[in-house]
């Protein structure tokens, strides 16, 4: 058995550049939580099945638990800490509060990152299995069924799903109550 | 995870060379491989991360079809305009698998080579002939709801879990490989192996082979008028119990000119039902004909208890998929008039 050798990796997290030497076994999730002290991304299953660890990697949502940190060299990561701050929440965060989109809150960072990505994916016309022929061109056109399918990688044990759907509808349709919606702050920081 | 060294080659030739090291294994998106390393099912000495290789685009194949780079993500492949229009079953199969997060990361080659979801295989505290040849197969008498009814052996009754591969088999795709002895092309239906007495050998790949691309033949009526029907325990985000990729092309008189049928969730490999296709070609697309074709597929099927229901479910799913494909074919013929 060969000894673990550390591997150099450069990643930009929420706009800040980091250069680290890592054991190749370290996951992106552990890099964030244990090495960079960004504990917003949560570890649920650690096997790709719950979505609690969802982050944006070069603007696309992925399960950080299944990505080796060393394979992210040169890439940009956005975590919940890069979406809004306690003083200035992003519109989707406000909407989660307003529509009761979280209860215990454990799954919420992943749900928020997925919501942000979902709106971007809809805008890019990415299809879902519900409608391969004619994907919507904006998140505002998504039905409840579509939102549920597109959010299916994020499990919430408390069952806050109806609130999460409402929050996404509200922000996507521009009905969210805060003025920050118009500023485009709901877009991924890397976009 | 056991310790491993790591490299990130920048060319296919370097990746092939890196595989010469004993205990070296490739990693694409890692969505299956990292999971299995964490469980101790995979324990490579050296991980060759191919994620950065320039194999991430979809282009025209020389014969008029599509050439899909090995590193094209499942999302990119499912969303591609040409795939949605000309190989609809492939788009539907991809989108019915996993979740957006996983599809964004998963690669075309990695999806082909994902390992079985047999729970005994995935938990190293159990014996398993596939993981440890000769140790036994607890699934045969154990919990086997997701296991095979066709092509299985006394040594292993595991299924191949991929949705994408079912469509690839129905579409007559070709796998392109580069190894130390040069390039090879392998018809998709010959790529995965049945378990026989060596279930640990899952494909015809050699240890230092890298998949570089998959090509699809030129689009046809049967590839356009095609669907993927997936039956699972939950409506979303679950592996298939039984799935069917089906496509139909009608001739001018409304008879079946061409038909494609492949099944997932029933065997060690995506199960191309050539016999049933033969029964249908040249005949009228009736409800009865579809049911008979489905029954023919399971004529020699075996159940192991928990999975007996698949013998009833499979022909019904075949009939449902053929009906849906017929709808698309009739719409296409109608549009053409
Ligand atoms: C929770 C969960 C649910 C899922 N649900 C589904 C589902 O419903 N349907 C479905 O089909 N799939 C499902 N998947 C599986 C998923 O689709 C696969 O994990 C994924 O497609 C694998 O691709 P990858 O690039 O991440 O492969 P990796 O994990 O990187 O690799 C898989 C295998 O491929 C080999 N490999 C990778 N690239 C190459 C190459 N270029 N040449 C040769 N060998 C290579 C690796 O050595 C490894 O053995 C699910 C996965 C998870 C975690
Ligand atoms: S079915 Fe195959 S993979 Fe599952 S325990 Fe038996 S030998 Fe192993
Ligand atoms: S912790 Fe990553 S998906 Fe559950
Ligand atoms: S709010 Fe508790 S798990 Fe979702």
From TrEMBL, chain A:
Ranges where the 2Fe-2S ferredoxin-type domain occurs: 7-83
GO molecular function terms listed in the Swiss-Prot or TrEMBL record: 2 iron, 2 sulfur cluster binding; metal ion binding; oxidoreductase activity, acting on the aldehyde or oxo group of donors
A Pfam family that the UniProt record links to this protein: Fer2
Keywords annotated in UniProt: 2Fe-2S, Iron, Iron-sulfur, Metal-binding, Oxidoreductase
Matches recorded under InterPro entries: 2Fe-2S-bd, 2Fe-2S-bd_dom_sf, 2Fe-2S_ferredoxin-like_sf, 2Fe-2S_ferredoxin-type, 2Fe2S_fd_BS, Aldehyde_Oxdr_Iron-Sulfur, Beta-grasp_dom_sf
GO cellular component terms attached to this protein's record: periplasmic space
Protein name: Aldehyde dehydrogenase iron-sulfur subunit
Source organism: Rubricoccus marinus
Lineage, opening ranks: Bacteria, Pseudomonadati, Rhodothermota, Rhodothermia, Rhodothermales
UniProtKB/TrEMBL annotation, chain B:
InterPro entries: CO_DH_flav_C (IPR005107), CO_DH_flav_C_dom_sf (IPR036683), Diverse_Substr_Oxidored (IPR051312), FAD-bd_PCMH (IPR016166), FAD-bd_PCMH-like_sf (IPR036318), FAD-bd_PCMH_sub1 (IPR016167), FAD-bd_PCMH_sub2 (IPR016169), Mopterin_DH_FAD-bd (IPR002346)
Location of the FAD-binding PCMH-type domain: 1-221
Tagged with keyword Cytoplasm: no
Highest taxon of the lineage: Bacteria
Pfam families: CO_deh_flav_C, FAD_binding_5
GO MF annotation terms: FAD binding; oxidoreductase activity
PROSITE patterns per record: FAD_PCMH (PS51387)
Signal peptide: none
Keywords: FAD, Flavoprotein
PANTHER family documented for this protein: OXIDOREDUCTASE, XANTHINE DEHYDROGENASE SUBUNIT C-RELATED
Protein name: FAD-binding molybdopterin dehydrogenase
Organism annotation: Rubricoccus marinus
């Amino acid at each position: 058995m060969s000894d673990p050798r550390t591997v150099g990796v450069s990643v930009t997290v929420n706009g800040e550049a980091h250069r680290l030497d890592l054991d190749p076994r370290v996951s992106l999730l552990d890099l964030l939580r244990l090495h960079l002290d960004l504990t917003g991304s949560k570890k649920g299953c650690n096997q790709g099945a719950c979505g609690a660890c969802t982050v944006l990697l070069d603007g696309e949502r992925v399960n950080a638990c299944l990505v080796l940190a060393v394979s992210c060299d040169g890439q940009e990561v956005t975590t919940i800490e890069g979406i809004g701050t306690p003083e200035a929440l992003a519109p989707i965060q406000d909407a989660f509060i307003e529509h009761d989109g979280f209860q215990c809150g454990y799954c919420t960072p992943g749900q928020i990152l997925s919501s942000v990505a979902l709106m971007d994916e809809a805008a890019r016309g990415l299809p879902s299995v519900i409608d391969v022929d004619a994907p919507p061109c904006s998140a505002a056109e998504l039905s409840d069924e579509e939102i549920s399918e597109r959010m299916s990688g994020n499990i919430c044990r408390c069952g806050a799903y109806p609130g999460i759907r409402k929050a996404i509808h509200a922000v996507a349709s521009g009905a969210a109550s805060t003025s920050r919606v118009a500023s485009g702050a709901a877009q991924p920081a890397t976009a | 995870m056991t310790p491993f060294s790591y490299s990130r080659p920048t060319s296919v030739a370097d990746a092939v060379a890196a595989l010469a090291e004993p205990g070296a294994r490739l990693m694409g998106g890692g969505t299956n491989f990292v999971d299995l390393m964490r469980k101790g099912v995979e324990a490579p000495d050296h991980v060759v991360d191919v994620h950065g290789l320039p194999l991430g685009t979809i282009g025209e194949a020389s014969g008029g079809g599509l050439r899909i780079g090995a590193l094209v993500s499942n999302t990119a492949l499912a969303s591609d305009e040409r795939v949605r229009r000309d190989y609809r079953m492939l788009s539907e199969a991809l989108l019915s698998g996993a979740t957006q997060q996983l599809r964004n990361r998963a690669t075309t080659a990695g999806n082909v080579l994902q390992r079985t979801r047999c729970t005994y295989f995935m938990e190293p505290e159990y014996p398993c002939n596939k993981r440890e040849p000769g140790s036994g197969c607890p699934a045969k008498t154990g919990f086997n709801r997701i296991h095979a009814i066709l092509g299985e052996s006394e040594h292993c009754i595991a299924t191949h879990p991929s949705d994408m591969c079912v469509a690839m088999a129905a579409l007559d795709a070709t796998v392109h490989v580069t190894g130390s002895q040069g390039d090879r092309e392998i018809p998709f239906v010959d790529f995965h192996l049945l378990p026989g007495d060596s279930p640990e050998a899952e494909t015809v790949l050699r240890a230092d082979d890298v998949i570089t691309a998959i090509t699809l033949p030129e689009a046809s009526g049967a590839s356009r008028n095609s669907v993927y029907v997936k039956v699972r325990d939950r409506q979303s985000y679950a592996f298939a119990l039984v799935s069917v990729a089906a496509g139909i092309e009608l001739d001018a008189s409304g008879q079946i000119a061409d038909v494609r049928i492949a099944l997932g969730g029933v065997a060690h490999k995506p199960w191309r039902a050539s016999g049933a296709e033969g029964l249908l070609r040249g005949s009228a697309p009736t409800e009865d004909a579809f049911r008979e074709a489905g029954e023919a597929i399971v004529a020699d099927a075996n159940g192991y208890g928990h999975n007996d229901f698949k013998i009833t479910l499979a022909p019904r799913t075949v009939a449902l998929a053929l009906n849906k494909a017929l709808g698309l074919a009739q719409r296409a013929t109608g549009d053409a008039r």
